[in-house]
Design a protein that fits this description.
303 residues, alpha/beta, Rossmann fold, 2 domains, 4-stranded mixed β-sheet, two-stranded parallel ribbon, 6 strands, 50% helix, globular
């Protein structure tokens, strides 16, 4: 849309994923096509650099004990950044993301051949990249500049009043264990998963669900204060959020019908932090496996 943007996430893997997808909008796909023709060798290349298998890591999902693993991917990416070879960096990152994606699927679907999964995922990546680039055309000068940072939404590295608008979907309380879901990916990038868990909104806060919920409320309060600080007067903060009432009812030990929706919580905390509620759009969440039946788009404004 031609809008300049900054994307911030506390997970280095999410930052890496976003940066790779942004590069894929305009990168040269020649070497990716060539890698597709040598998919077994490419898979072996990345496997040798990640010595621990997803199934081995699965035993450690609930443990804070560090897992011994060589993680040269981070060093490799840093080296490519330093060299200034953008084409090699973009190709390496896209292939690595496809590899991590395939290994994640292999962990969740036992019996599937990881190499075949890698080939299928790489095919999909390449198909989507080609379609997007064909749609954008050769002249992409109109695209907005997008930057990605690994950072904390509770303490944004942005100047006061420097942002026109904010859009985010916060962690769904403690409904999803984002560290466990991405553990193989995080280890492959050399990330300390236990340390990340201690800092991640929705996961930190103690062993009891109630402790995590209380920490979540405080974190959301701090996030909304930061949003107000960095917004320019008149700027909008738009939040997409849903509620797992069943889980929160267990944490608070109250009936589900008495659970305060997270959209209501956001509006309450926003008002306390100096953001005005403007409008809310409610929409159903489709799919039998979803624990939430509705999500909400909440519009807040700094006056």
């Amino acid at each position: 849309m031609g809008i300049g943007s900054i994307g911030i996430d506390i997970s280095p893997f999410c930052t890496f994923m976003a940066r790779t997808k942004l590069a894929a909008l305009t990168m040269d796909l020649t070497r990716v096509r060539r890698a597709r023709e040598n998919v077994e060798r490419v898979f072996e290349y990345f496997t040798k650099r990640t010595e621990i298998s997803p199934m081995t890591q699965k035993k450690h999902l609930t443990s804070d004990e560090p897992i011994p693993v060589q993680s040269p991917h981070e060093d490799e990416i840093s080296s490519l950044h330093a060299s200034g070879d953008q084409d090699t960096l973009d190709t390496h990152s896209l292939l690595l993301l496809a590899y991590l994606d395939s290994m994640g699927y292999a962990e969740r679907t036992q019996g599937r051949d990881p190499v075949k999964l890698f080939r299928g995922i790489l095919d999909r990546y390449l198909f989507v990249c080609e379609k997007i680039q064909a749609t954008l055309g050769s002249d992409c000068a109109w695209l907005g500049k997008a930057t990605t940072w690994t950072g904390d939404a509770r303490a944004l590295s942005l100047a006061e009043g420097s942002v026109d608008g904010i859009l985010f979907s916060p962690s769904y309380s403690f409904a999803v264990d984002y560290v466990a879901n991405d553990l193989f990916h995080l280890r492959a990038l050399g990330v300390n998963a236990a340390e990340l868990r201690e800092n991640m909104v929705g996961l930190r806060g103690g062993p009891r669900l109630r402790d995590k919920y209380d920490a979540y409320r405080q974190d959301m309060r701090d996030i909304l204060k930061e949003c107000r600080r960095v917004l320019r007067p008149g700027g909008l903060c738009t939040i997409v959020i849903g509620t797992n009432s069943n889980q929160i009812s267990k944490a608070l030990r109250i009936a589900e019908e008495r659970v305060q929706g997270l959209d209501e919580l956001v509006r309450q905390l926003a008002q306390e932090g100096g953001l005005d509620f403007i409008q809310q759009i409610d929409r159903p969440v489709l799919g039998l496996m979803n624990t939430m039946r509705e999500e909400h788009i909440v519009f807040l404004q700094k006056k």
